[in-house]
Design a protein that fits this description.
Elements (H helix, E strand, L loop, with lengths): L4 H14 L14 E4 L4 E5 L16 E3 L22 E8 L9 E6 L5 E6 L2 E6 L6 E4 L11 E8 L31 E6 L2 E3 L4 H4 L4 E9 L4 E12 L5 E10 L5 E12 L4 E10 L13 E9 L2 E10 L4 E4 L2 E4 L2 E2 L2 E7 L13 H13 L4 E5 L5 H10 L2 E5 L9 H18 L5 E5 L7 H14 L6 E3 L28 E4 L3 E2 L28 E2 L1 H16 L12 E5 L28 H9 L11 E3 L10 E8 L3 E6 L2 E5 L1 E3 L3 E8 L4 E7 L5 E8 L6 E7 L5 E2 L5 E9 L12 E7 L2 E5 L14 E3 L4 E8 L4 E9 L2 E11 L35 E3 L4 E4 L18 E2 L8 E19 L5 E2 L1 E6 L2 E7 L6 E18 L4 E2 L29 E10 L1
Parallel strand pairs: 22-23, 22-30, 23-24, 24-25, 25-26, 27-30, 28-29, 40-47
Antiparallel strand pairs: 1-10, 2-3, 2-4, 4-9, 5-8, 5-10, 6-7, 6-9, 11-13, 12-13, 13-16, 14-15, 14-17, 17-18, 19-20, 20-21, 31-32, 32-36, 33-34, 33-37, 35-36, 37-38, 39-41, 41-45, 42-44, 42-46, 43-45, 46-47, 48-57, 49-51, 50-57, 51-55, 51-57, 52-56, 53-54, 53-55
Helix pairs in contact: 3-4, 5-6, 7-8
Length: 993
């Protein structure tokens, strides 16, 4: 039986009466009403006159359900610069039951791109222009009730050149390189009904209110205890004063009340806005952690004369964080950052960002599945759905405000501050956010203070660090880190904000598999060669090599450490690109979230908090070749040694590189099974993994993926359907490139997939090829329930058919009670934070007491001052190209780590002496940061570095930005020209255990 909105609201009033006994332990479902305002919209592409008026004829407009980007058809079809822009109109007809005529009614938009002007029943309600953040309005005075129809109209403008109306200032982050422009109402919309005495919404810019703030302090992680505080901003819109009793209830994941906190009574005058709070110690807590999205429901309750008048439900989690000694600690345990720098749009082909919540969990959960623990959203704040998704899947977040690149001035800086303020207020109850990012490049110290002050004002107890990319020597920033290079610190954590920037299309296995892509093949970019254009073999190898640079400098390796880094990007992105596609293919999964081999490589190298568990291995590539083929086989493993077997015959042990990569050269292919077995240094077997040759392709296979309750017939829910080419045993054929023809019937809309080979990337096409034997298509539900059938055919292969149901979705008068994401459960697969240390100490740092040098001795201290932006450089003459470090007493030394000036482009022939004994003579390699020089242990109280010959200049990395600009060579400060120059930014001297 359908429940009408009117009957639902009557039930809501009845629930309020029941809630009067809340302190007796009754379960709370709601204390106010939040309705899904997504159904029943109409869309017009272009501008028109009169569309703001209720009598306007919109009968020929497109019927849609939000969220829905006005230019969704362009997503991945066109590159970011060519996405459709301009004006679009959205209209909605709806009714509100008469019983709510005396209630407050608010609308909440999770965001509009770029600007939206909102009209209700012909009257202008308000405008939002920043193109990122949530906003809302009080609709109470504009609404009609009962049988009278309301008409909402929203005029959207997603122009790249949009300027703020009041100031004529452009928005720094409305940028055609970084922020894919999916226009219109591309995020969720809700209605909120409250009493006239109510807890406010966290929508500061348009409502001037901050909502509820829940936080924990005084953690006892081992004792599973903390002090929980819930602050609520309350407003009294009655014409008389009200005495309010405040109460807080905390429910665990199973719905059990674990604590009821009674606050004091407070009096609110008419029109008064006041923050009230209550705190208590709560025991037996489950702390939110990486891959353990344990969440609590906190109810903040207002009573007047013993009767419940308002209840706000906040889903949050509790965790302890620390940022110091160069490390991040989560729940008292050091954790090295490893994850992804992902575009905040987190986009999909032919959809853009507007996916259902379960698909956000799918994508973000895959980051965790790959071993990622952090997502750094790039340039702008992500939408609430992704923020809440990260809470559920247990993925830490770095949350930016908004920028393009670099600092801002004047009104543009104020816009950034306002956006950060709004984003903090809106998202401060989400436990997964650990970092607030002030800019995609460094900002001034004054601006860093501005950002930190906002954090201190609006989120002082959230346990979040305020910082920015770069900011290596900032006295204000609480974290930092460059884009490409390895940074280390003994103070604030430094982690790389974008590393491993190369690209590799999932279509290409290697140069021996169709369609035969040799590493580096592809078009040049700005006349530069394309070594970034990988196949999957070399792309995975590159990811392993690049991560090793950070892992080598992990916590436990000294006083100065790297706090890790994030790989750019997780999924192929509709943003700037350098390869043969018109979108970026740097993802560890493709745009449809089908994994590349690099995804599985990360599962091995990221399998741990700091030190890596050595029980994982992965064989890169497939085992389907032609007779006579010989190839290098690559195995990624956490073991110390790896043995390869082909059909049971040993091919020996692999050559180890970058700690995790094992290479077996010139392995002759033969059909059957290839197996890798890993061992520790003592010969104990750790892991075993194998791949088999698939047989001849004979048929197609279809597999459907939907949300946990199936496909909802709401007009916005999506189903993903995998199509595979398989052999007679159902094994995927990894070299199949078959073209598939699809036909769809039933109440559904075809959105299709993506593939290489057509100018439009096959977007919306009902024929597209598989890559590596698999592809994936998207099907959108309609507002009608019913059976949906998909048929797939391909020449020479047995066809496949799959059917699934679109389940009824109740909508009455344009309103629904089903809230997106409310039915999704947290992922707890990794379990709580493990006890004990996350790393072993591998070397002991030796303290330098003083230093002298052949020249520029006054700068000698800069080579060991824990500041990578200072350096000692000699005067350019070979006789003065030395520096001597003195210890407090005699030490045993066997390793030196240095960040050398021009680290990426210069090779230095050096000698290292302990006392008068030369312990090393050789040439330093180029690096993306630090070089490690091991040698036989020697005792002494001094260590001398001296240049032993002419320096050599050669760029060993060829890092080219998408603009065609080469990245700098890695020099700091004074860098005299000539071949008799050596410069040291930082040196560390160790006794390696």
């Amino acid at each position: 039986m359908q429940i009408t909105v009117l009957r639902y609201l009557v039930m809501f009033l009845f629930v309020n009466l029941v809630l009067a006994g809340v302190s007796k332990g009754d379960n709370i479902d709601s204390g106010r009403l939040k309705l899904n305002f997504n159904p029943g919209w109409k869309l017009y592409h272009g501008d028109t006159t009169g569309a703001d008026q209720p009598g306007f004829n919109d009968s020929q407009w497109q019927n849609i359900t939000l969220p829905h980007a006005s230019n969704e058809d362009d997503a991945f079809k066109l590159d970011i610069h060519n996405l459709s822009t301009g004006i679009s109109w959205y209209r909605k007809h709806f009714k509100i039951p008469a019983k709510y005529s005396d209630k407050k009614v608010f609308i909440e938009f999770e965001g509009i791109r770029q600007a939206g002007e909102v009209y209700l029943n012909g009257e202008f309600v308000g405008r939002c222009e920043n193109g990122v953040m949530a906003f809302g309005f009080d609709l109470s005075k504009f609404l009609k009730f009962g049988d009278q129809e309301n008409v909402m109209a929203v005029r959207c403008d997603n122009s790249w050149t949009y300027r703020e109306k009041a100031t004529n200032a452009a928005y720094h982050w409305n940028n055609a390189n970084f922020y894919a422009n999916y226009g219109g109402i591309a995020k969720n919309v809700y209605l909120h009904f409250t009493d006239k005495l109510y807890q406010t919404l966290p929508l500061f810019s348009t409502l001037g209110t901050t909502g509820v703030y829940v936080y924990a302090q005084n953690f006892d992680i081992g004792g599973k205890q903390a002090t929980i505080t819930a602050e609520a901003q309350v407003k009294n819109e009655y014409p008389v004063s009200k005495i309010v009793q405040y109460q807080v209830r905390v429910e665990d994941l199973g719905g059990k009340t674990i604590k009821t906190i009674d606050g004091v009574q407070d009096k609110l005058a008419p029109g008064e806005l006041k923050t009230i709070k209550a705190s208590a110690t709560v025991s037996n807590l489950n702390f939110w952690s990486w891959g353990y999205g344990y969440l609590y429901t906190v109810y903040t309750i207002l009573k007047v004369d013993g009767k419940v008048v308002d209840v706000v439900k906040t889903r949050t989690g509790f965790r302890k964080t620390e940022f110091g000694d160069g490390m991040v600690k989560l729940n008292d345990r050091a954790i090295q950052m490893h994850g992804y720098a992902q575009r905040s749009t987190n986009e999909w082909p032919a959809i853009g960002l507007s996916v259902p919540a379960w698909m956000s969990d799918l994508s973000n959960g895959m980051m965790v599945e790959s071993g990622g623990n952090l997502v750094r959203w790039m340039h702008v704040t992500p939408w609430k759905q992704d923020v809440e998704s990260c809470d559920r899947v247990g993925l830490m977040q770095s949350m930016p405000a908004g920028d393009a690149e670099g600092d801002s001035q004047g009104r543009q800086w104020q816009q950034r501050l306002e956006l950060m303020r709004d984003a903090m207020i809106y998202n401060r109850n989400n436990p997964s956010i650990l970092f607030y990012e002030s800019g995609n490049k460094g900002v001034s110290e004054a601006h860093m203070k501005d950002m930190k002050a906002i954090r201190d004002q609006y989120d002082p107890y959230g346990g979040r660090a305020s910082g920015s990319r770069e900011m290596l020597d900032s006295k204000v920033a609480e974290y930092g880190g460059e884009m490409l290079y390895i940074n280390k610190s003994a103070k604030v954590p430094l982690w790389a904000h974008e590393y491993s920037r190369d690209e590799g299309l999932r279509l290409y296995w290697d140069e021996l598999s169709p369609p035969y892509h040799k590493d580096g093949d592809g078009p040049k970019r700005k006349e530069e060669p394309g070594p970034y254009n990988h196949n999957m073999d070399s792309f995975a190898q590159e990811d392993v090599a690049r991560w090793f640079d950070y892992w080598r400098e992990r916590p436990g390796t000294g006083k100065r450490v790297s706090s890790g880094g994030v790989n750019i990007v997780f999924s192929d992105s509709n943003t700037h690109f350098r390869g043969e596609e018109n979108y970026r293919v740097s993802g560890e999964v493709d745009a449809l979230r089908i994994a590349k081999d690099a995804f599985y490589a990360h599962q091995v190298i990221w399998n741990g908090w700091v030190d890596v568990a050595n029980n994982g291995s992965y064989i890169i590539g497939h085992w389907n070749y032609k007779k006579g083929i010989k190839k290098n086989v690559y195995v990624v493993s956490g073991g110390d040694r790896v043995e390869l077997l082909v059909n049971g015959k040993s091919k020996g042990f692999g050559e180890q590189s970058n700690r995790f990569m094992f290479t077996f050269k010139d392995i002759a292919w033969e059909p059957g099974t290839i197996k890798a077995i890993s061992y520790d240094s003592k010969g104990t077997k750790l892991s075993e993994v194998e791949k088999k040759t698939a047989g001849q392709a004979v048929s197609l296979k279809l597999t459907v993926h939907t949300g946990p309750k199936g496909l909802k017939a709401d007009g916005a829910d999506l189903a993903l359907v995998d199509v595979e080419v398989v052999d007679a045993q159902g094994n995927r054929c990894p070299t199949a490139l078959s073209k598939i023809d699809f036909s769809l019937s039933g109440p559904a809309e075809w959105r299709g997939g993506i593939a290489h080979g057509q100018p439009d990337n096959f977007i919306l096409s009902k024929s597209l090829p598989v890559a590596g034997g698999i592809n994936r298509v998207i099907i959108r539900s309609s507002p009608q329930a019913g059976k949906i059938t998909l048929n797939a055919q391909s020449a020479g292969l047995k066809a496949a058919t799959i059917s699934f149901d679109a389940k009824p979705f109740e909508v009455n008068d344009g309103l629904a009670t089903d809230i997106p994401g409310a039915d999704l459960k947290p992922g707890l697969e990794r379990g709580p934070t493990p006890s004990g240390p996350s790393y072993t100490i591998s070397r002991i740092p030796i303290t330098v007491m003083s230093a002298t040098a052949g020249s520029n001795t006054a700068d000698a201290e800069k080579s060991y001052d824990d500041n990578e932006l200072t350096s000692w450089v000699n005067d350019g003459t070979v006789k003065n190209a030395w520096i001597k470090y003195t210890f407090a007493d005699e030490q045993t030394v066997n390793e030196v780590v240095m960040k050398l000036n021009g680290w990426r482009t210069k090779k230095y022939p050096i000698k290292i002496s302990i006392g008068n004994q030369v312990v090393y003579s050789g040439t330093t390699p180029q690096s993306l940061g630090y070089v490690t020089v091991p040698f036989k242990a020697a005792k002494g109280n001094t260590l001398t570095i001296e240049l032993a010959g002419a320096t050599a200049q050669q760029d060993n990395f060829g890092l080219v930005e998408v603009t065609g600009k080469k990245d700098d060579a890695g020099s700091v400060g004074l860098d005299p020209k000539g071949k008799s120059v050596i410069g040291i930014n930082e040196i560390e001297i160790y006794h390696k255990l």
